[in-house]
Amino acid sequence: MGKAEKHIILHITNQGVFYNEASCIDWAHTNFPPKDTFNFNERFTLFWKARLLSFDAGRSLLKVDIVDYEVGKAPAAFAKQKAKFPFQNMEFSPLQWEAIEPVMNIYNKQLFRPILAPQKTRYISYQEEEEWVDFSEPEEQKTRVDLQFEYPLKKAAFKMGYVEVEHQISELPEQTLTIPLENPNILPEFDYVKPFFAKALGKKKIEVAGYLEIDASDHIEVRCHSKDINRINENFIATVRKLRLEDAIFKPKKTTVDKSLFTPEEYFEGLDDSELGNTLRQSDKDLLSDLLESDKVRNRKQLLYLSGQLQSERSGLRFTLSPKFGFLFHVEGETMDHFIWELLNSHATYIWSIDRFGTSLEHKFRLIEREINFIRENGRRVYLDHTGNEGLVFHRVKHENSEAGLVDGFPKWRVRVGECLV
């Protein structure tokens, strides 16, 4: 027995698509053309019935198929509709042009073509004295112009399901063509991080190829694609995320707060929420896992060991930006709390130990932040010459043979770290 279909009522407005009285998806987050190229006639109150096709949590994307364009007035169930999982983007399956064209007063059919279902052709014939007479519409004469050009990626606009570029041709000198390059993996959020897409592509311009046709009424139909845009899939987007993460880590934003320790939420809260669908706001473990895939990290083994074998489950990771990016791990010993500072590319591990009893964990974190602040302001060499703060036990464990290709110093480092954790 087939799975029961699920439906939802959508209120179609010039503002966007409402799925209840308060929740609206902006047109920029759908696969419709840009909003400034179409407008619904506000004399009509439009409610569409949609069949739910799929939900992609990673892309916050709901896909729907419109099954009824004339629901009429809002059903009572509309106000009670709630999304089981929050979503920010909506993709319509191919729409019936004959159903939406009458309710719009501004539109450019050329821009709608990527999301329209094929229209049925009219064909009439009759048989007379065993001879067929064809009354089908004659094929319209069109002028074809082949297109092949490069376009700066920084000028392209990422939309819902396509990238939009502009182009001028000699045949239409007074008109700028708006050309959609389709790819279902494209989201509007990508527009914020185009430099990282260029870096992942290895080029600043994308190649566009195809053709346009102009009929006798000067209507234009453009059919173009880009092999570069076609490369954007889930793996490619994952690469862009890593590039974005590396940039945030190795080129950290300037901060004026007197602060050395950050949680992931505290650091990334300054970044634009729209960047890559907010994918940088990860858990601390996911952040570390993604970061360790970078070839810029020397101390990968140490970081993996500290996060996987020693890090306490009752406290999240902290990390530092200055003097270098690194992680502060909390390890619970039998008699002491240990705080291990491991940088991405340093030659030594710093360990501070504090008696487990008598003070809160947050107070201990503040004490460690005080030590790191001193290092940030005075340098590590000065700190090593003046260690000995009351209540803190300090150890420095060097990464022996860290630069040698034949000798692995990790086992010796691990033993020495273990000797400090009591």
What is the strand and helix layout of this fold?
Layout: E1 7-12, E2 16-18, E3 24-26, E4 39-40, E5 46-56, E6 61-68, E7 89-92, H1 97-100, E8 104-106, H2 109-112, E9 125-128, E10 131-134, E11 142-152, E12 157-158, E13 162-169, E14 172-182, H3 194-201, E15 205-215, E16 220-225, H4 227-230, H5 234-250, H6 264-268, H7 284-291, H8 300-310, E17 318-320, E18 326-332, E19 336-343, E20 348-355, H9 361-378, H10 380-385, E21 393-398, H11 410-420
Parallel strand pairs: 6-7
Antiparallel strand pairs: 1-2, 1-5, 2-3, 4-8, 5-6, 9-10, 11-15, 12-13, 13-14, 15-16, 17-18, 18-19, 19-20, 20-21
Helix pairs in contact: 3-5
Primary descriptors:
alpha+beta; six-stranded mixed β-sheet; five-stranded antiparallel β-sheet; 11 helices; 23% helix
Unreliable stretches covering 5 or more consecutive residues: 121-137, 271-281
The assigned structural class equals alpha+beta
The total domain count is: 3
Question: pLDDT average, as an integer?
Answer: 81
Content of β-strand: 25-35%
- Largest β sheet strand count, sense and barrel closure: 6 strands, mixed
Strand tally: 21
SS field, number of helical segments: 11
Please compute the radius of gyration using only Cα atoms: 30 Å
Strand order of the largest sheet: 3-2-1-5-6-7
Shape category: elongated
Fraction of helical residues: 10-25%
Query: Termini, distance in Å?
Result: 62 Å
Summarize the structure in words.
The chain is of the alpha+beta class and 422 residues long. It has three domains: 7-108, no CATH class; 139-232, no CATH class; 252-420, no CATH class. 23% of the residues lie in helices and 31% in strands. The chain has eleven helices and 21 strands. The protein has helices at 97-100, 109-112, 194-201, 227-230, 234-250, 264-268, 284-291, 300-310, 361-378, 380-385, 410-420; strands at 7-12, 16-18, 24-26, 39-40, 46-56, 61-68, 89-92, 104-106, 125-128, 131-134, 142-152, 157-158, 162-169, 172-182, 205-215, 220-225, 318-320, 326-332, 336-343, 348-355, 393-398. The chain has a six-stranded mixed beta sheet with strand order 3-2-1-5-6-7, with no helix packed on it. The protein has a five-stranded antiparallel beta sheet with strand order 17-18-19-20-21, sandwiched between helices. Strands 11-15-16 form a three-stranded antiparallel beta sheet. Helix 3 (194-201) packs across helix 5 (234-250). The longest helix is centred in the last third of the chain and has 18 residues, at 361-378. The radius of gyration is 30 Å and the shape is elongated. The N and C termini lie far apart (62 Å). Mean pLDDT is 81; it is low at 121-137 and 271-281.
